[in-house]
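User: two proteins, same treatment. go.

Assistant:
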Amino acid sequence: PLEFDSQEAREVLSTRPDPKKQSLSTLRDMFLKEKQAEKLAIKTLRGHATHLKTLEDTGWDAYQLRIDLQAQDKADSTVYNYMKDIRTFARWLSKHGVVFDIPDISKPRRTRTRDTFTSEELHVIESQPMDETAYWVTMICMHHGFRQGEPLQLGYQDVREVHGYWCFDIHERT
């Protein structure tokens, strides 16, 4: 039996039907309600919900989901986060007597190699005629490792001075 600090969590769990007799979609909903009762961060709950909905869309095949995500060229960290959330759900199912194949999240990650610009290529890029916005977006991407388009999401509040140095303060806004 699971123990929680809040009365609300105990009430949710005490009214839960037998997990062994439920569909995986219903079990997913029960899992998410339980996690919500545990007062997980909203971002974490959204991640669980999104990742488990995507798993449902593959017919609850975690291995196929991994292949699909990699085929979509998702970042290794994204694939890892999906698998981690699915593994959490699988462990929750197992605790409740439901057998679900837990995906291996410790497989070696793909190695992505990206070509770097040569000095000559950088000189050609920097010498191209550009308007002021294109120039600064290009410079920020080249010198700070941003992906294309990321500098366009910056606002004035993302640039600040720290100990006498100007920097980007990248943070999630709520």
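Protein 2:
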Amino acid sequence: PIQMSSGLPTTVLPEPEPVVRHALAQATDADDARAAIAAVVASHPRFSEGWAELGDRGRDVIERYAAYRVGYHRGLDALRANGWRGSGYVRWESEGNAGFLRCLLGLHLAAEAIGELIADLIGTHPSTEGLAQRIHAHTGGNPFFAEEVVQTLIESGQLEGVRGAYQLRDKVER
């Protein structure tokens, strides 16, 4: 539901069902918590809080990014289903919003880490100065798109060398 005030509206997502919350709590305490949490989100794919927990336990930045991204999109679906139209507040103090917001934060942090991975992949040769940041910005931090851009630059001959020590042959245009 949307709550109107004198300013922008606030969207509040319903709190998850107690049985789903309980399943997640049990999964987080399991011996193989990551696998148990994955089973919870497989059974309840719209449960953003579960995706946030799975992202928190990702084995690497790509796995964390993927889990947070799914949870973020399931959260957007839930927001739209509850009247959100792309503007207004989605506040932390509303418990139902927490999973979506955790995924949003996790997605941001994972994208930053992916920017660092791109920079490590390309290297520090003066000819590549700013290239990692441009690729990161162009791909929105999506690791799959970023890898494709780097691979395209290599295959086209614009980027030469080896992992961590590439040189740019020509200036790359937008």
